[in-house]
Amino acid sequence: MTAAAMNNNAWLQSTLCDLLGAPHISIRGIPGIRMGPGPVDIFSTRFNNHFALEVKAIVAGESVDRGGLKEKLLGLQQHYVPGSAKFQTESEDSTKGTSDGEAHVFLTGEAENVGAYEVSVSAETSAGDILDIKEI
Fold first, then answer.
1. What secondary structure does DSSP assign to 75-116, as a single string?
2. Are 132 and 124 within 8 A, CB to CB?
3. 3-state SS class at 53
4. Burial class for 12, CB neighbours closer than 10 Å (0-12, 13-18, 19+)
5. Which of 8, 46, 80, 102 has the fewest Cβ atoms nearer than 10 Å?
6. What was the pLDDT predicted at 97?
7. How many Cα atoms within 13 Å fall on the side-chain side of residue 69?
8. Is 41 in contact with 22 (CB distance < 8 Å)?
């Protein structure tokens, strides 16, 4: 695995940790009542910082746009428990992640409501932040 691929894997793991550990705050406005600034939605802020407007993703075989990707990552966040989650990258002798724009990370964990889970995430960072999330 090249040094660039290892850096991409580290970027992808860091991005997922940032997103999955960030609080998501959704406040619905009351019609006719103007509300002042509320709490900052850290998840949305980090999502917007990490992914371009034209990001596309494949989640469990289904092509999704930016909004769909955010929705799926928020769904994964519901099961994410930082203490039980473990990240793995491809091994040194693996052929995956050899391109400078590719990254591959595996996330496994244990959630109270669904039990054990495994997620494989592949990202192509050189082509406009294209993510390929194989399973959630």
1. HHHTT--TTT-EEEE--TT-STT-STTEEEEEEEEEETTTEE
2. yes
3. coil
4. buried
5. 46
6. 44
7. 26
8. no
Nearest to 47 by CA among 118, 129, 133: 129
Spell 67-89 as b/e; 16+ CB within 10 A means b: eebbebbbebbebbeeeebebeb
**pLDDT, mean over the chain:** 74
Contacts 24+ apart (CB under 8 A), 79-83: 79/109, 79/111, 79/113, 79/114, 79/117, 80/20, 80/21, 80/109, 80/111, 81/109, 81/110, 81/111, 81/112, 82/17, 82/20, 82/21
pTM for this prediction: 0.71
Closest to 76 (Cα-Cα) out of 124, 39, 131, 130: 131
Mean pLDDT of 83-107: 68
